[in-house]
């Protein structure tokens, strides 16, 4: 079938219509389809994906599908991710940089005819509640139906987003191709992709171009690419514009309310609502690197009586100052793209319950009765499975049945503990911000920062053992400041400065900053802290601190709990001591790693962070 690509654009936005035409001329798809986000469209596209062999319909879960990727396309590709700012310095030392002109030239060749034989889907989407002040719009052009249906789960996608684009005029342009054009008569494969990959961002022109991968983090461009890399640049620019205005003596006049005329934050953070028995709810945001526990903490089932957790978001937070000077956060997403392995009744029952239907599972294992399974879903594996590579699998098999970065894509609204206000367009006021990562050694269970600046210092020094969420060696320790290393769309030294600026905002009522580590290990390599639901004990201490009801011990690295509730926990005195103390010798070694890390940012590193470093060294003696 060959339908003319000259379908009239169903939009009055001429920029959008013109851009779609331009991309179609470049990529030469067989068909163009504008996604409206309807039920009918979902049914048609998921049926198509089943026909094509990309999806297997799950007999055991309504309206749910199973997909396995090409074995080479299972995670984000950080070494193929580029920030294409005009100046290399603006991408900074932690990002790969290609000059925009050169990148455009490469793409001019690479994207030429790359959608031949395929349908080009035009996917309008809104990040954040439809029509919200903090929300932002985008359009993803993609030649993957898998991406189009995933975007319907992960964002507010379709007609209503398109109408908002027409009202507001501006939107972020995102182009995605799997990079696998089909010659006439050539048969498609279930998971088309290319060995050539580029995940490129143009922060100045607010564009995203992604080539060669179908994996969520590389292909669902509203998520990491937009809501973190592009949005972090938008958030910083808003603050820079205010500062420039102030120095010219014309602070903010004429600026639209939507810009708020001041910097905001686009962060790799879950948002949760915590209600103590006393009743006053608090909202907490937490940044951990990929596959370090955000989704789990966001859906935590407290083990301590009377405490309640509800979910607002599990991966990304956009925060702006409200009129009361507090930081208000929204979850820009509409779904969860979560790590499947390790998600089970015992660890994250709320996630398991979210997945009852309307979900897409990628690179998990398939049971013989048409359901999904992965390591950790149940204690005992089924006697027989089809593994993520399509092979017959039994408990005796050598490899795990699911890929360690296997994922579920599921609507947030299905989470049994989703907070009623999760779609409140004005966001929720944040009382505490947590940073953390995987650290087998040195780092205590929880540390309270001494000040906002000290908290920024803690964030800048987040280090974590690498996980399967990105290509590379698992277990290797790396600095991952603010859990944003792979996601900051500009110079990370400037990003630290932006955080310090946020703290200097007049009238700011700032959240308190904490550092947590659920992943401390014993000499025998087992986790000391039970984690998961027991993390509620740490949240309780934090809320009690905010309320002035819990005691802390000053240490050289910050304030540690004097009275953590460990009642009923099976932890030895020695284990508790390990979790809740600071070994000066070990910390002198930790501190010794900081200068080399800071020096990579050169003159972009704010002097306040060197001052914090010197103060730490002094305190360590
Ligand atoms: P995210 O990618 O940051 O959202 O991380 P997830 O919440 O999906 O968790 C990633 C992995 O870490 C999963 O296998 C979890 O089971 C595991 N995990 C999460 N929280 C904890 C915890 O408190 N303790 C331990 N030991 N593992 C955890
Ligand atoms: P996450 O990221 O592991 O932080 O959920 C998803 C991704 O890998 O793109
Ligand atoms: Mn997650």
Would you count the extended β strands for me? 31
Q: What is the correct CATH architecture of the largest domain? A: Alpha-Beta Complex
Number of domains: 3
3D shape: globular
Structural class: alpha+beta
CATH top level of the largest domain is Alpha Beta
Function: Catalyzes the conversion of oxaloacetate (OAA) to phosphoenolpyruvate (PEP), the rate-limiting step in the metabolic pathway that produces glucose from lactate and other precursors derived from the citric acid cycle.
Binding site for Mn(2+): 224, 268, 315
Subunit structure: Monomer.
Pfam family, one: PEPCK_GTP
Features:
Phosphoenolpyruvate Carboxykinase, domain 1; Phosphoenolpyruvate Carboxykinase, domain 2; 3 domains; 9-stranded mixed β-sheet; globular; binds guanosine-5'-diphosphate; binds 2-phosphoglycolic acid; binds manganese (II) ion; decarboxylase; PEP_carboxykinase_N; manganese ion binding
Give an overview of the whole structure.
The protein has 621 residues and is α+β, with helices and mostly antiparallel strands. The chain has three domains: 14-54 and 78-238, Phosphoenolpyruvate Carboxykinase, domain 1, CATH 3.40.449; 265-334 and 419-620, Phosphoenolpyruvate Carboxykinase, domain 3, CATH 3.90.228; 336-414, Phosphoenolpyruvate Carboxykinase, domain 2 (Beta Complex). 29% of the residues lie in helices and 21% in strands. The protein is built from 17 helices and 31 strands. Strand 6 (119-127) and strand 7 form a beta hairpin. Helix 2 runs antiparallel to helix 5 (145-154), helix 11 packs antiparallel against helix 12 and helix 11 (452-460) crosses helix 17. The radius of gyration is 24 Å and the shape is globular. 2-phosphoglycolic acid binds at residues 76, 216-217, 224, 290-291, 315, 337, 339, 469. Manganese (II) ion binds next to helix 9 and strand 18. Catalyzes the conversion of oxaloacetate (OAA) to phosphoenolpyruvate (PEP), the rate-limiting step in the metabolic pathway that produces glucose from lactate and other precursors derived from the citric acid cycle.
């Amino acid at each position: 079938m060959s339908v003319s690509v000259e379908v009239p654009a169903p939009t009055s936005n001429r920029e959008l219509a013109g851009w779609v035409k331009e991309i179609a001329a470049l990529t030469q798809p067989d068909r163009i389809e504008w996604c409206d986000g309807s039920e009918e469209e979902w049914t048609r596209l998921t049926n198509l994906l089943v026909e094509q062999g990309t999806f297997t319909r799950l007999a055991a879960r309504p309206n749910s599908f199973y997909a396995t990727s090409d074995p080479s396309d299972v995670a984000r590709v950080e070494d193929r991710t580029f920030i294409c700012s005009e100046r290399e310095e603006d991408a900074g030392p932690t990002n790969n940089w290609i000059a925009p002109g050169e990148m455009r030239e490469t793409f001019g060749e690479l994207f030429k005819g790359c959608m031949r034989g395929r349908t080009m889907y035009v996917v309008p989407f809104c990040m954040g509640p439809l029509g919200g002040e903090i929300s932002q719009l985008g359009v993803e052009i993609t030649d993957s139906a898998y991406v189009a249906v995933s975007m319907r789960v992960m964002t507010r996608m379709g007609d209503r987003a398109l109408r908002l684009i027409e009202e507001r005029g501006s939107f972020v342009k995102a182009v995605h191709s799997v990079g696998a054009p089909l010659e006439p008569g050539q048969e498609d494969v279930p998971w088309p992709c290319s060995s050539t990959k580029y995940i490129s961002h143009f922060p100045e022109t607010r564009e995203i171009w992604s080539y060669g991968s179908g994996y969520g983090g590389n292909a669902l461009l509203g998520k990491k690419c937009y809501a973190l890399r592009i949005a972090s640049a938008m958030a910083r620019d808003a603050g820079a514009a205010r500062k420039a205005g102030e120095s010219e003596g014309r602070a903010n006049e004429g600026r639209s309310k939507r810009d708020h005329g001041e910097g905001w934050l686009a962060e790799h953070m879950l948002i949760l609502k915590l209600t103590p028995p006393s009743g006053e709810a608090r909202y907490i945001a937490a940044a951990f690197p990929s596959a370090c526990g955000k989704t789990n903490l966001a859906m935590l089932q407290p083990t301590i009586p009377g405490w309640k957790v509800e979910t607002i978001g599990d991966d990304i937070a956009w925060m702006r100052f409200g009129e009361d000077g507090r930081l208000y956060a929204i979850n820009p997403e509409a779904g969860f793209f979560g790590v499947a392995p390790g998600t089970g009744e015992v660890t994250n029952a709320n996630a398991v319950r979210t997945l009852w239907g309307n979900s897409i599972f990628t690179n998990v294992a398939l049971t013989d009765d048409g359901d999904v399974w992965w390591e950790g879903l149940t204690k005992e594996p089924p006697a027989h499975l089809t593994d993520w590579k399509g092979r017959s699998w039994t408990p005796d098999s050598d490899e795990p049945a699911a890929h360690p970065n296997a994922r579920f894509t599921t609507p947030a609204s299905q989470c049994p503990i989703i907070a009623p206000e999760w779609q409140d367009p004005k966001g929720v006021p944040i009382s505490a911000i947590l940073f953390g990562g995987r650290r087998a050694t040195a780092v205590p269970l929880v540390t309270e920062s001494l000040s906002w600046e000290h908290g920024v210092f803690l964030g800048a020094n987040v280090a974590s053992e690498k996980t399967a969420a990105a290509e590379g060696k698992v277990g290797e320790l790396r600095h991952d400041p603010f859990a944003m290393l792979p996601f900051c769309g500009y110079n990370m030294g400037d990003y630290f400065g932006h955080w310090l600026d946020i703290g200097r905002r007049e009238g700011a009522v700032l959240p308190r900053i904490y550092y947590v580590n659920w992943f401390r290990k014993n000499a025998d390599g087992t986790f000391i802290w039970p984690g998961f639901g027991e993390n509620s004990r740490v949240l309780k201490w934090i809320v009690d601190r905010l309320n002035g009801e819990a005691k802390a011990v000053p240490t050289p690295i910050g304030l540690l709990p004097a009275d953590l509730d460990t009642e009923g926990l099976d932890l030895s005195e020695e284990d508790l001591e390990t979790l809740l103390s600071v070994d000066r010798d070990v910390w002198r070694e930790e501190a010794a790693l900081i200068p080399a890390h800071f020096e990579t940012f050169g003159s972009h590193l704010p002097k306040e962070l060197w001052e914090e470093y010197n103060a730490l060294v002094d305190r360590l003696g």
